[in-house]
UniProtKB/TrEMBL annotation, chain A:
<dbReference type="InterPro" id="IPR037165">
    <property type="entry name" value="AldOxase/xan_DH_Mopterin-bd_sf"/>
</dbReference>
<protein>
    <submittedName>
        <fullName>Purine hydroxylase beta subunit apoprotein</fullName>
    </submittedName>
</protein>
<feature type="domain" description="Aldehyde oxidase/xanthine dehydrogenase second molybdopterin binding">
    <location>
        <begin position="15"/>
        <end position="274"/>
    </location>
</feature>
<dbReference type="InterPro" id="IPR046867">
    <property type="entry name" value="AldOxase/xan_DH_MoCoBD2"/>
</dbReference>
<dbReference type="Pfam" id="PF20256">
    <property type="entry name" value="MoCoBD_2"/>
</dbReference>
<dbReference type="InterPro" id="IPR016208">
    <property type="entry name" value="Ald_Oxase/xanthine_DH-like"/>
</dbReference>
<dbReference type="GO" id="GO:0005506">
    <property type="term" value="F:iron ion binding"/>
</dbReference>
<dbReference type="GO" id="GO:0016491">
    <property type="term" value="F:oxidoreductase activity"/>
</dbReference>
TrEMBL record, chain B:
<dbReference type="InterPro" id="IPR036683">
    <property type="entry name" value="CO_DH_flav_C_dom_sf"/>
</dbReference>
<dbReference type="InterPro" id="IPR005107">
    <property type="entry name" value="CO_DH_flav_C"/>
</dbReference>
<dbReference type="InterPro" id="IPR016169">
    <property type="entry name" value="FAD-bd_PCMH_sub2"/>
</dbReference>
<dbReference type="GO" id="GO:0016491">
    <property type="term" value="F:oxidoreductase activity"/>
</dbReference>
<dbReference type="InterPro" id="IPR016167">
    <property type="entry name" value="FAD-bd_PCMH_sub1"/>
</dbReference>
<dbReference type="GO" id="GO:0071949">
    <property type="term" value="F:FAD binding"/>
</dbReference>
<protein>
    <submittedName>
        <fullName>Purine hydroxylase gamma subunit apoprotein</fullName>
    </submittedName>
</protein>
<dbReference type="InterPro" id="IPR016166">
    <property type="entry name" value="FAD-bd_PCMH"/>
</dbReference>
<dbReference type="InterPro" id="IPR036318">
    <property type="entry name" value="FAD-bd_PCMH-like_sf"/>
</dbReference>
Length: 336, 294
């Protein structure tokens, strides 16, 4: 008897589960004919460290880490020996906005080119100092240059800097961006990042509440310069996608925002986000710095379609407008 | 802002003296989680604040005979973690735990939640279902009033400008009794309630409802008792038909109450689901604290 009442009152039958996926591709950079140029300078400092000047703004995405990693990799020096100046506009050259998922790809390329040019100049100088006829056979390692077949023939970056204090390199990267034709056809971007998201949701048919039970996000990153940062971007992008799909509404009325504070403009909390299983696919992009493509926006894009598909799978209602709030779900379920 | 002074009395007597002196020119501040916002927005403009958050005699939970007595200055955190409140009162703890954020729960008080008279006040709903009695004190003396009679309109209560709400008391639930609470918010934490329900239930071995008190939040001008559904359910055996009829009554009642608002249809439907969840929780507790499989 008690069991039967419990069942009547709200057993699992009233909660419907469904699964859905979303698949997207997204062009890195401004694209569609809008000029997209990143610049960077690299300079050998007196103490043998290398200064990187690039106007790539850190907005929490990890530009400061990634630019240092790329410079460190290119010059084969420890990351401690890279001095990054990235947000001082009196020093750093323009590297465009931290937008369009473009900093790692575009400005990363500029930093890589600047470092390659600096490295070339360092090797030229080392060639003279080490008294060999060619740069061929010279190795750059941990802040020194040596002759590969005669490793004791070696000079440090610091010694090189003391002999020539004007060693620099400039990097300019111009991205592919061509305007589409009047029919919206063409090749507006290069490269593209691919992403797929799968979720399982539970819809409470009595209150309209949606709970995301499980999530998986697969991202074609080209190369993860810093895998932990990419995973962090996935966590953040997924949460943003949940807000986009289920909660966030500026409530525009007659040109005014009704939900103009975080009291009414609802974004997800940690309790609204499940553990996200993450898969990074590393298929290096030829034109990218060490193969790395833009991932900032791509981590967000497949989330809302996956959630809406999962809701459809759960309750058979197809929503064409977001956010899908409990109110919209309940009214749809009780239509007519 | 017109604020000239903020007094911080250490005893209730001292606080009542200040209140007697300044009356409507003053505002009582406890946790301040609602008051500070109103001050900033300019919605209130007192000359004097009387800060009662340092008065120890207004804090904490006491067991007095068959009653539990909660001091008005008890925070939501204290309430949610109070070991005196037994498992049958889980609905009250759940409500306290669902208020705002950890910061709000550490500052906000039960007395403030009641006196602020917000329709969405989470802790008030289970206190209504417990048929709580408030004690209001002034220099002139004490008076008692049922919580269900305390609210007059949205943000309006029966309290006079020389009175402080000092305690809230209710009978400790016993055998065959339980208190359930469910809140529908727009997210899983830090959510303002869209609808909340609390159910106090006493049910016998053959599932006859001996006592049922139902309270709602955010479906009226203030948190209130749902007498129509209470009257229908009292004395009946809880089965599928009874429940369905009760839900119809509730839906119709709330739809009529909110008629004209664009949320009327949604809220009247959702209220049924929220009520059922609160009832199920109360039922499980009344039947001996059985786990709710959800």
């Amino acid at each position: 008897m008690y069991r039967r009442i419990k069942k009547v009152l709200g057993g699992d039958i009233l909660k419907k589960r469904g699964k859905g996926i979303g698949v997207t591709f997204y062009g890195t950079g401004y694209g569609n004919g809008f000029p997209d140029v990143s610049r960077a300078y690299a300079r050998l400092l007196e103490d043998g460290k290398v200064e990187i000047l690039v106007g790539a703004t850190e907005v929490g995405q990890g530009a400061k880490t990634v630019m240092v990693q790329i410079a460190s990799e290119t010059l084969n020096i420890p990351i401690e020996d890279v001095i990054l100046v990235n947000e001082d506009t009196s020093k750093a050259p323009d590297a465009g906005t931290a937008a369009a998922s473009r900093q790692t790809y575009n400005s990363g390329n500029a930093v890589k080119i600047a470092c390659e040019n600096l490295k070339d100049n360092i090797l030229q100088e080392a060639k003279k100092i080490l008294n060999v006829n060619s740069k061929i056979g010279l190795v750059c390692e941990k802040g020194s240059v040596y002759v590969k077949t005669y490793p004791s023939k070696k000079v440090s970056f610091k010694e090189i800097a003391n002999i020539n204090n004007n060693l620099k390199g400039e990097g300019v990267f111009i991205a592919h961006t061509t305007q589409m034709d009047e029919n919206g056809q063409g090749a507006p971007y290069w490269p593209y990042t691919f992403a797929a998201c799968a979720v399982e949701v539970e819809v409470d048919t009595e209150t309209g509440e949606v709970t995301i039970l499980r999530a998986k996000l697969v991202l074609d990153v080209g190369k993860a310069v810093n895998p932990t940062l990419v995973e962090g971007q996935i966590d953040g992008g997924f949460a943003m996608g949940v807000g986009y799909a289920l909660m966030e509404d500026v409530g525009l009325k007659d040109g005014k925002m009704l939900n103009s504070s975080f009291e009414k403009y609802i974004i997800p909390t940690s309790l609204d986000i499940p553990n996200i299983e993450k898969v990074l696919i590393e298929y290096p992009e030829d034109t990218a710095p060490y193969g790395a493509k833009g991932i900032g926006e791509p981590v967000l894009l497949p989330v809302a379609p996956a959630i809406l598909n999962a809701i459809y799978d759960a309750i058979g209602v197809r929503f064409y407008e977001i956010p899908v709030t409990c109110e919209k779900i309940l009214l749809q379920l009780n239509k007519g | 802002m017109n604020l000239k002074a903020c007094y911080r009395p250490l005893t209730l007597k001292e606080a009542l003296d200040y209140l007697e002196e300044y009356k409507d020119k003053s505002k009582i501040i406890a946790g301040g989680t609602d008051l500070i916002i109103k001050l900033r927005k300019g919605n209130i403009n007192p000359q004097v604040l009387i800060d009662i958050s340092f008065i120890n005699e207004l804090k904490g939970v006491l067991e007095v005979g068959e009653y539990m007595e909660i001091g008005c200055g008890t925070t939501f955190y204290d309430l949610a973690s109070c070991i005196l409140l037994n498992e049958r009162l889980k609905g009250l703890k759940d409500a306290a735990r669902s208020v705002g954020s950890p910061q709000i729960r550490n500052r906000g008080t039960i007395g403030g939640n009641i006196c602020n008279a917000s329709p969405a006040a989470d802790s008030v709903v289970p206190l209504l279902a417990l048929d709580s009695i408030l004690t209001l004190e002034s220099k002139k003396g004490k008076r008692k009033i049922y919580l269900k009679d305390f609210f007059k309109d949205k943000g309006k209560t029966d309290i006079r400008d020389d009175e402080i709400l000092t305690t809230i008391k209710f009978k400790t639930p016993t055998k065959n009794q339980g208190l359930g609470f469910y809140k529908l918010g727009l997210r899983k934490s830090l959510a303002i309630s869209r609808i909340s329900f609390s159910v106090f239930l006493e049910i016998d071995d053959i599932n006859r409802i001996e006592i049922i008190r139902v309270a709602s939040g955010s479906v009226g001008k203030f948190p209130m008792r749902e007498y129509k559904i209470e009257n229908y359910l009292t004395g009946r055996i809880l089965d599928e038909d009874t429940l369905n009829t009760a839900l119809e009554i509730l839906e119709k009642d709330i739809y009529e109450r909110l008629n004209g608002r664009n949320t009327a249809r949604f809220k009247s439907i959702a209220a049924k689901g929220v009520f059922k969840k609160a009832l199920l929780k109360a039922l499980c507790l009344a039947k001996g604290g059985g786990k709710i499989e959800d």
